[in-house]
Write a structure and sequence with these properties.
Number of strands: 32
Strand content: 25-35%
Oligomer: single chain
Strand order of the largest sheet: 2-3-1-4-5-6
Distance between the termini: 85 Å
């Protein structure tokens, strides 16, 4: 199946043409049939000679129903552009063309109707001139009469060629079904219809009502009046939903693959070539799919703008938008989404700098450009933005860094480590959380990526800190160095004469200073409140070997010339390190 929308001026025979092609009535309401005027969207279909089915979305041509028309063509990839031979190119023809150009529609067929009433060549020439310099300039044209049937076979042949030329849809893509009708059927419940441009919907699937909305279950599916277990793009589809009232899924609602879309409230966009953001009104109606929301326009330069949407939309990079003047049919520009989740503009000159970034941003998202622009991003967000080729989550928890930003991050990390050690030499090594904040990273696990870069060879992560790999002693404050030098002289004469807490306080050695001395290899902590020289345990083992084995703590105390306050934690430390063992109740043997 493929889907085609009609377009053209009011009363140019769009619905009549579809009745002749399909034998079905596109005007659904009695009021439409009485007035001969399509007010809302109609849907009919027919099977072509190659067996392919074409479904038509018949849109209203009257300017008062422009929002309905835009809701119909929004998700549709091709157009049947209708111009009446006895009327020629008219104002609503131009307005519909503006909408199609804004949406980037480039596939279709130009049909000149009522060819039995007047020579169609003049109307055809007018239409060709209007389509020139648009994506629809070269579409094939057919002159027909729905009354006599002239040209209908040729039109069906052109539709067959159109169906074969349309790009193959991605049926494995995430679902975004824009609802264009919502109603209740007795015994079945809520039913919504829409054009499925990509993805596949299956009975039993869970879908999300808008990004961040409630989940609903697919109870049943129909396409062109036939029940199906699954429907793949591109297709007209009716979805019977469980768990929601029809009033809660009105036209403009998007049914989404859960968890794969993000709400966008302030997308950055590029307006189409030939348009200028200075010509946009301050407020516009933004049309996407079948939805229309009010938005404030903030120009960033002549081609780029930020839209502040009154209601968030599930947008991805590359989505086409129609910007319509509120209360009017004028469409000053079409636009393409470049960034659904841009950074805030806070500082002076931020808008100009942002415009420079957007000028280099492609309209088709790719992993490299997105990472270069964002610096860091999560794989779930990148997929939600429509980026292809996103890798699976790894040891970083799914966070990715721009490879080009790594040298700068390494430089900042080295500077942060050096600054920390200079300001606090008693506590060398930057804690990983502080390092994460210094680099403005969303997750500390990304530090492993930064440290793996060749430029980071001079720093390493050890025990939750990032410090130098040089192995040199940190620069201790002068008063600490002097105190340690004094203790070294003391230990040279009396290796096991540990200073008391009072003596340490007089030397200005508190807990942080003593810990820094241990890390520097200048002291060793034997036990609570007991500090000796860095080689105290090795010296103790050498001395205690001189004693008859086993020996008692009292014997060890006397032999080492120290106190019970020192010898008891010293013997415990030797045992913990496997340098000694206990024998009996009070005996010790050194290894």
């Amino acid at each position: 199946m493929f889907v085609v929308a009609t377009a053209g001026h009011v009363d140019h025979g769009k619905s009549t043409l579809l009745r002749a092609l399909t034998g079905e009535e596109p005007d659904r309401w009695a009021q439409e049939r009485r007035r001969g005027l399509t007010i809302d969207l109609g849907y009919v279909s027919t099977t072509l000679d190659d067996g392919r089915t074409v479904a038509f979305v018949d849109v209203p041509g009257h300017r008062r129903f422009m929002p309905n028309m835009l809701a119909g063509i929004g998700p549709v990839p091709a157009v049947l552009f209708v111009v009446a031979a006895d009327d020629g190119w008219m104002p609503q023809s131009a307005e519909h063309l503006d909408a199609l150009v804004a949406l980037g529609v480039r596939h279709g067929v130009l049909v000149v109707t009522r060819s039995d009433l007047l020579d169609p060549e003049l109307a055809l020439a007018e239409a060709r001139a209007a389509l020139a310099d648009t994506p629809l300039a070269d579409i094939p044209a057919v002159c027909v009469s729905a009354v006599t049937g002239a040209g209908l076979d040729e039109l069906r042949a052109e539709l067959t060629r159109l169906g074969a030329a349309l790009p193959e849809p991605d049926r494995g893509a995430d679902v975004r079904l824009w609802v264009d009708r919502s109603f209740t059927i007795e015994g079945s419940g809520t039913v919504v219809t829409g054009t499925l441009p990509a993805g596949t919907v299956r009975v039993g699937d869970a879908l999300q009502v808008g990004p961040g909305g409630p989940r609903v279950a697919v109870r049943g599916l129909q396409s062109l009046g036939q029940a199906h277990d699954e429907v793949g793009a591109v297709a007209r589809v009716a979805v019977n939903l469980r768990g929601v009232a029809a009033g809660d899924v009105p036209r403009g609602t998007a049914l989404l693959t859960p968890g794969r879309w993000r709400p966008s409230s302030t997308p950055d966009v590029r307006v189409d070539t030939g348009a200028d953001t200075a010509d946009l009104p301050g407020q516009v109606m933004v049309h996407c799919g079948s939805e229309a929301v009010n938005a404030h326009v903030r120009p960033l330069d002549t081609r780029h703008a930020r839209l502040a949407l009154a209601e968030p939309l599930p947008l991805r990079v590359g989505d086409r938008l129609i910007l319509r003047e509120p209360g009017a049919e004028r469409i000053p520009a079409g636009a393409v989404v470049l960034d659904p989740a841009p950074p805030e503009l806070r500082r002076r000159g931020a808008a100009r700098r942002r415009a420079e970034v957007l000028a280099a941003t492609p309209e088709v998202p790719d992993l490299g450009s997105e990472l270069r622009r964002r610096g860091v991003a999560h794989v779930d967000d990148l997929r939600a933005f429509g980026v292809a080729g996103v890798p699976a989550a790894d040891e970083t928890g799914g966070w990715l860094l721009d490879p080009g930003a790594l040298p700068g991050l390494v430089e900042r990390l080295v500077a942060a480590v050096e600054d920390h050690d200079r300001r606090d030499p008693l506590d060398p090594g930057l804690p990983t959380e502080a390092a994460r904040r210094a680099l403005d990273l969303p997750d500390a696990r990304l530090l492993t990526v930064v440290l793996a870069h060749p430029a980071a060879a001079g720093i390493q992560a050890v025990d939750g800190r990032i410090g130098s790999t040089g192995g040199g002693e940190p620069e201790l404050p002068e008063h600490v160095r002097e105190a340690v030098d004094g203790l070294a002289e003391r230990f040279a004469a009396r290796p096991f004469d540990a200073p008391t807490a009072g003596e340490l306080a007089e030397l200005g050695l508190g807990t942080r200073e003593l810990a820094a001395c241990v890390r520097a290899g200048l002291l060793s902590r034997i036990g609570p409140g007991v500090w000796l020289g860095p080689d105290a345990t090795e010296a103790a083992v050498a001395e205690l070997r001189r004693l008859p084995q086993p020996f008692t703590p009292s014997t060890a105390r006397t032999h080492l010339g120290t106190s019970r306050r020192v010898v008891m934690p010293l013997l415990e430390k030797l045992a913990e390190e496997g340098l000694s063992r206990r024998v009996g109740d009070d005996g010790h043997v050194v290894a």
